[in-house]
Amino acid sequence: MIRKASLLLVGVVMGATAVVTYSQAPFRFAEPASAASADTYNQLNLFGDVFERVRSDYVEEPTDSKLIETAINGMLTSLDPHSSYLPPKGFRDMQVQTRGEFGGLGIEVTMEDGLVKVVAPIDDTPAFKAGVQAGDLITHLDGEQVMGLTLNEAVEKMRGLVNTDIVITVRREGINEPTDITITRDVIRIRSVRWNKEEDVGYIRITQFNEQTFDGLENAVEELTAEIGKDKLKGFVLDLRNNPGGLLDQAIAVSDAFLNRGEIVSTRGRNAEETQRYNARNGDMTNGAPVIVLVNGGSASASEIVAGALQDHRRATILGTRSFGKGSVQTIIPLGANGAIRLTTARYYTPSGNSIQAKGIRPDIISLQELPDELKGRAETKGEAGLRGHLQAEEGDEGSGSQAYVPQDKDKDVQLNLAKALLRGEKVDTAFPPSADSAANASD
């Protein structure tokens, strides 16, 4: 069994949204429960035969390492959209991203039907400023087709020297012709937590979960409480919309910040002994202040862990639209000098024991944004259930994705304004505040 140790970030601008664990142990094949069948060895011989035939007879001499790398990646990507091979440079880049700083355009991406799909642009990055939107399908990079490239290869082409330009061609639902967008590369420094005073309400936005997230949340709560005043503070809005996920331990720490006790999340692998449970410690950073969490179709993975934990414990009211539905865990397994593999090894479960895989978190209060004319009919994400080859939901109907649009003008942000009105008592909903009885039951 591979030992799981420290936790690492999902590949920003490198892969699909995911909660990622990291194994320090060198990769070795575990002893199989039963001896490999003769058929398995025949299939491995088949691979060897094909490999040798390609090496000897292909019209141009191929590179052996490239053939092997592509074969490995094909094997992994055939499992689900989130398993893949990380070549040495890709592995190093992922480790750099964990610190919250990397070079690139500033977009969270996955692969869909052979094209690069934008999960969400990162706030205040070149891609965000250039108008890249969640749901955009990138078809060309500097005129070169994306079809036929792996996700890692496409990401590599999007990266480059700071202050150099790249032209991405995007296909956007509702627009007949592809659109060229010129973006100037820059160093992407992720400030994962931003906050500001909304009169008597504290607004905290978490854009992703990196190593600085919990510290940022702590600073936000302290500064907002001091600035607004404990007596005047009506509560907090925790904005997780279009947050694609990140570090599992940071998602646990953020959840713990609002909880006094109870399970936060559990992860379950193929074998029962691999189950891990993470529990809250005593102490609520906000001293029990009311909390409303905003989610939408771009809220995935680690952000769904936070929303699910606070919802199940009735510590917060969840408001917005159905979340992405990314309920699986990927382990990064180093392969020495040969990079690493990202392998789906477990599902995660909310405190009530629910798997949100391909279903997402359903808000307590469903609230849709008012869309500008140019976005009407095409502002929804497909969600995890819309990804080809995704892990199936364990039970129940799969979710079909939901609206992921957030207006930049806060005055037009229907979800945020509803949250503030609820906290101030200007509007009433049976889901806010959550019942104390339900909270006690969820915590037991």
Automatic annotation (TrEMBL):
Pfam families: CtpB_N-like, PDZ_2, Peptidase_S41
Family statement: Belongs to the peptidase S41A family.
Organism: Pseudovibrio axinellae
Keywords assigned by UniProt, alphabetized: Hydrolase, Protease, Serine protease, Signal
N-terminal signal peptide: 1-18
CDD domains: cpPDZ_CPP-like, Peptidase_S41_CPP
Leading EC class: hydrolase
GO molecular function: endopeptidase activity; serine-type peptidase activity
EC number: 3.4.21.-
Keyword Secreted: no
UniProt protein name: Putative CtpA-like serine protease
Xref: InterPro entries: ClpP/crotonase-like_dom_sf (IPR029045), CtpA/B_N (IPR055210), PDZ (IPR001478), PDZ_sf (IPR036034), Peptidase_S41A (IPR004447), Tail-specific_protease (IPR005151)
